Amino acid sequence: MKRLIPALIILFASVLPAVAATPQQMEQAKAATYRLCLRYMNNGSGYLDDSKFPSSTSELEGTIGGHDKEKANLKKLQAVPIPPESEYASWDKGAFDKFWTVTFLDKAPNFDGKAECRGKVAKKVSAIKVTVAEPAKAEEPAPAEEAPAAEEEKKAEEQQPEPGTDADAIVNAAPANLPASDSVIAAGAEGPANTEKQSKGSGNTVSIIVLAILVLVVVGLVAYALNVMRKSKEEQQPVRGRGRREPQAAAPVSQADMEDESAFASYAAPEPQDTRDAEIASLRAEVERLRRQSRPQQDARYTPGSARQRQPRVIYLARANADGVFTRADASYNMGNSIFKLVTTDGVSGTYQVIDDPAVFELALMTPTDYLENACTGRNLQLSQGASIIVNEAAGTAIFDQGRWRVTRKAQIRYSR
Asked: Starting at the edge strand that comes first in sequence, how are the strands of the sheet with 404-409 ordered?
């Protein structure tokens, strides 16, 4: 069985058409993805809905025209790396769709409605057909040489009886190694045609039989693999009616660890990719529930002055939306996303200010309406042209509300050259 599988793979790979992504298809998918992302990144870009989907990024840039906000957002999207042709030339349809709907959007900057945008990108990219390369045509067999027939005719002429020679003696003296085809040809004009038709018919029948056997073998192998996977999955899952496997006891978790995890609870919730990921997420939720039940009742109640003094903790926040809610929180600096640095001692409230970093200044000053206005106050924040530094004059305050950090008092800033 182990030797048969590689042979079947080689056989089917030689007869099935090859599939590969082309630069034109990658350019079409990139233009469509950019267009959908730009629409969701700016609520004021409704004019894009009235335009047809571009087939290239240059056509998309023509549609954007003089809209500065879309130009800035397009630069952010173009900063996401695209694999070279040497890599995506070997992609099939599945790898092609996965890159644009999962890999690219995961690396793209965060924005409101990203999940809905991902669904529309998947629908648009799935409609793009990946090129199917035509298999090379089999070489036609070279025409049979006519030289042997001419030589046979010449030999027959030489063996004709001379005048006065006994015909029976000549016939008896005929060479014994005369080819069988000559006797068939002599038997009648229809002999070779019938023989050729029979050989072709038998060859087609053999090919059909071999192909049918290969199909049956492949179907059997697929069924065998599915059966093995199903049994393996049943062994890993708890069996209903015969008891439920309890998760292993988790290591003791301190109150400080629970608060640290809660500060990022709503910012890190990856969607399970298959049933196994869903089972893992379910087990984690069960472990979390058991942890909360095992904690003493008095720990769940907060009384002023009961919290012990803790070391200050730094959390890096992205921009805030129109509701004053920060769209992302990280435990460490995340280039391209982190704009503010929040310091908290209890995981519930803290103070924040703009990160003192030239890269952050450049990103925030590019579009201050998006990155600064919802979390900061100051004089003429929209007029950032010519400025290169953001000066923190007074820190803002934020609270951890319903799993998200929310602005309670905006930070005071000003621009400087």
From this structure: 329-330, 313-317, 340-344, 349-354, 396-401, 404-409
